[in-house]
Amino acid sequence: xxxxxxxMGNDRLKFTLRFSRAYVAPxxxxxxxxxxxxxxxxxxxxxxxxxxxxxxxxxxxxQPGASGEAYWIAVLGVLVIVARTLSRVWxxxxxxxxxxxxxxxFFAHLLRLQPDFYARQVTGDLLSRATSDVTYARAxxxxxxxQAGNVVGSAVFGVGQMLALSPQLTLAVALPCVLAFGLxxxxxxxxxxxxxxxxxxxxxxxxxxxxxxxxxATIQGFNVERVFQSRLDGRAQDLRRTSxxxxxxxxxxxxxxGVAGGVATWGVLFVGGGAVREGTLTAGQLAAFIAxxxxxxxxxxxxxxxxxxxxxSEASLERIYAVLDAETLRPGALPSPARAPSIELRxxxxxxxxxxxxxDLCTTLPAGATVGIYGPVGSGxxxxxxxxxxLETPARGTVFVDGVDVLDLxxxxxxxxxxxxxxxxxxxxxxxxxxxxxxxPDEQVRGAVAAAALxxxxxxxxxxxxxxxxxxGIALSGGxxxxxxLARALLREAPIVLLDDVLSAVDHATEQELxxxxxxxxxxxxxxVSHRLSALVHADxxxxxxxxxxxxxxxxxxxxxxxxxxxxxxxxxxxxx
Amino acid sequence: MKAQSWSWxxxxxxxxxxxxxxxxxxxxxxxxxxxxxxxxxxxxxxxDRHVTGGSAEGLGRDAGLxxxxxxxxxxxxAVYTVVTAVASxxxxxxxxHALVKHVLGLSQRFFEKQPTGQIMSRATSDIDALNExxxxxxxxxxxxxxxxxxxxxxxxxLDAKLALVLLLLGPPIAGVIELARxxxxxxxxxxxxxxxxxxxxxxxxxxxxxVIQLFGLxxxxxxxxxxxxxxxxxxNVMNNVWDASLYAFIDGVAxxxxxxxxxxxxxxxTDAITVGLVVAFLDYIERLFRPLRELSxxxxxxxxxxxxxxxxxxxxxxxxxITPGDSSVEKPSGHLVIRDLSFRYRPDGPDILDGVNLxxxxxxxxxxxxRTGAGKSTLVRLLSRVHDGYQGHIEVDGVELSRLxxxxxxxxxxxxxxxxxxxRDTLSFNITLGDEKLDPARLAAAIAQSGADRIVSRLPLGxxxxxxxxxxxxxxxxxxxISLARTLARDPAIVILDEAxxxxxxxxxxxxxxxxxxxxxxxxxxxxxxxxxTITRAHRIVVLDAGRVVxxxxxxxxxxxxxAYGRLYRxxxxxxxxxxxx
Lengths: 577, 582
Hints:
The structure holds two protein chains of two kinds.
Chain A: H1 3-6, H2 14-24, H3 28-61, H4 66-111, H5 115-119, H6 123-165, H7 167-214, H8 216-221, H9 225-253, H10 256-278, H11 283-324, E1 343-352, E2 355-365, E3 370-374, H12 381-388, E4 399-401, E5 404-405, H13 411-416, E6 418-421, H14 432-437, H15 442-451, H16 455-460, H17 478-490, E7 496-500, H18 508-520, E8 525-529, E9 541-546, E10 549-554, H19 556-561, H20 565-576
Helix pairs in contact in A: 2-11, 3-4, 3-6, 3-11, 4-6, 6-7, 6-11, 7-9, 7-10, 7-11, 10-11, 15-17
Chain B: H1 12-15, H2 19-51, H3 59-104, H4 108-113, H5 116-158, H6 160-168, H7 170-207, H8 209-214, H9 218-268, H10 275-316, E1 336-343, E2 353-360, E3 365-370, H11 376-383, E4 391-396, E5 399-400, H12 406-412, E6 413-416, H13 427-432, H14 440-450, H15 452-458, H16 476-488, E7 494-498, H17 506-522, E8 524-528, H18 532-537, E9 540-545, E10 548-553, H19 555-561, H20 564-576
Helix pairs in contact in B: 2-3, 2-5, 2-10, 3-5, 5-6, 5-10, 7-9, 9-10, 14-16, 16-17, 19-20
């Protein structure tokens, strides 16, 4: 093909090919009718100059019939409008369908990815993959395919017609056009390079701006405004330099095809003029030729952009498939416990990357027991709960539920058997009803709200359960958010209950009330993490963690009878009571 | 805030330096238009005089003239494009500079009310919108108008009757275009809205992914997503249909024009409809429609730019800044006196601080404690001049704080804040903040005193290690140590330390403790303290309650007193659950 494309082997387009097989190919019917419409458009378009030629020649000869040609042209014109519209619709719509499907699959996949994937990502980047990268993929499936078809169509019919009229003239036209096209391709490569530079500079400037604007307090406090100003000025200068370089190149490169058209027309005048005087070409045909030159220039221009669009969509699809190919949670197959199970930890160790958080935990949580976990900051309590809720994946052979390795249990069923309240509650920008029930019947939602001691708060809100919270709604206090998360969890009667420090933001009386509610739910194995030992007093037994190790365990009374961190903490908290 | 509109004229001061380039660009527009109008005429001339009639002689010359016009148009337009770009890029550079300068001088109070994202938009997408409008908008609109007028003039000059006939097509075409555009405007809005809804949904679900996974909400979330995704798709498909029709319609106008011309020529049997005329008119029609096709795009640019202009100049008009004073204190000794300090946020609101008296003498370490809401953070804010308008006095070495120059304030008072702002640069930059005037010896001492030297040796590239967001390279505790180093490097007379409330990992805790020990041993400090270890090391403890000082004394004295401090102390024990050694 052309110089620029020759460097692109097949493996460079592998993601585009994958995308085409999976999302574009199934829509072949659309593309088929679209292609037919394209063929019609180009064929009919080429007829117009021919009828114009005939009409002009008739006029010059003083013969009747020019009106007839005029009617034909009008009819053809309308048909071309229809065919062209259809061709665009029949190419762009499947593009949108492919986009819809790709985005849907991408999002569905996101929902099933593991937390360690998310830990490595920046949300903004994921978001841009879901939105703008998918958009570029769609540009391929719609715009690029249309233009490719259009180029072929106009080449076949346009150039074909020109050749039929006069091969010499066609050559005269082809030379400047091909030359201009080649130059434009060279320029396009450089423009893409400059475009990437600009993106880079833009990114750097945005980063610096964000840093500066977020850190104004610091900057002002230390009187270093000048420093940041000059850094930002520097970035802006870089941006400007690249932008101007790109503009200069564009100013010369973009009009090239138009100029080529003009040069071609001049060539047509010269060579064609001679032919008309000789009589080998009619005047009308010459006019038609000039019209045909204009006809093929536009698609040629589009052809120049096909390569960049292709490159961009390939890059975007690579980013998309990086996510689509990422490993999702391994499902396992065995059913989950229906009644409160025992949970056994055999040498459970866990690390976040290089940093060990849990070290060799060995213990058994009996079925139906309430187990408390106590430990200072960083002791690994929350991580333990995350492992138990399978937000983090433990090693094989370390966590057993009713004697079965937790990795062998069907993940969705296991999650359904859990009732989890994490440490930092996350609320969606939805109503309280939605945040608690996620579509559960109102009765249940009200019950859960009451059980979580949230009733008075909800009653005080303008729309009660229908009040929208979160970014676009009302801001709840820390304690209220915690209780919403608690209500959410209480909605289910689950055999395993995991509570991470849920009572830290409520006062003593409410805490006792909630503890009572939780205890009244029989038939569950409960794991409660708390700083307030008053919440752990009635636990069947308590695990004491420190720096990821299990340093002690026993009932409240047993632990009090021994010297150790538990007893010290209890004594200290007693003073406060 | 009063609503004020800014017109394009407000951009003029930024454009002025490049007025010459702008004038040149403007001056070139009639030239470009003229060449554009001349080209079809030259083509017609060549065709009619030498090809379809007349003599072959002179074809070379007339064809050559046409070619010259083509090349001239290319050259002049290229110059015009570059000149316009240079002028607008320069203008934007100046505007960006002014915006950043302005924003960096605004008071912290302003930043608390504005989400950073919004301010960022002003400096990025809004300025970009202006850039687009300047470069491709206003002047090119002038060019378009002149060109269209010229083309009309050319058409009438060549054959007035035919031109008139063709222009009869104008209104119906314009009507159709307007109809389509109106419909598409509504669809654009729907596209924008549905995309925004989609983005917001995806962003929030990614943030709350764990809730979704824990509660098995995948199916429900997917279904909600599909609805939003579908809404977006349908809006785009509808828009495509209208867009495609419009595009095809405008394309098809040329054919209709040809048909009309032939019909006219046939029916009126004139000799005027020559090949040259038809070719010329076809060219003119294309030149008439090209700007029309781009018109809606340009209008959108300009509308966006106008909106951006409003927002940018609205920001530039904000005068929310703290006025610096003009007195200086050369060598502050570190004597801070707060007398009868009272403050309320709103004139009709409660007094947050109610007659606070506090003194920090050189060499002392004073800790301020109290419950949430006692007024500690307000005190810090007043000291760091986030707010003015207090009653009473805050005096540094006898001079009112609000009257000091920023330089003097910095020499006198150094802040170590709760929230540490780390910049995406090296560790070294994060300590020096790029200030070349720092004494290297003092800098080294600050690094050692704050415990930052341990961080330097821990990081592979030491001081040159690039820091990303907190947690990635340094822990929360280490960030606080860096913040301490930052302040110490300036060697202020008093250090005001606003301790972070969140607990830190044990390793950093130890480092911090040691750093604070050294700090207290060497400097005058006012500490808003939360850690028991910090409080007990202070020379004096001041207890705030409901905006007043209620108790003053050492730790032992106050515990024995068993008053407000005693209660706080016991509750603190309960919250952490461990016995902290005093």
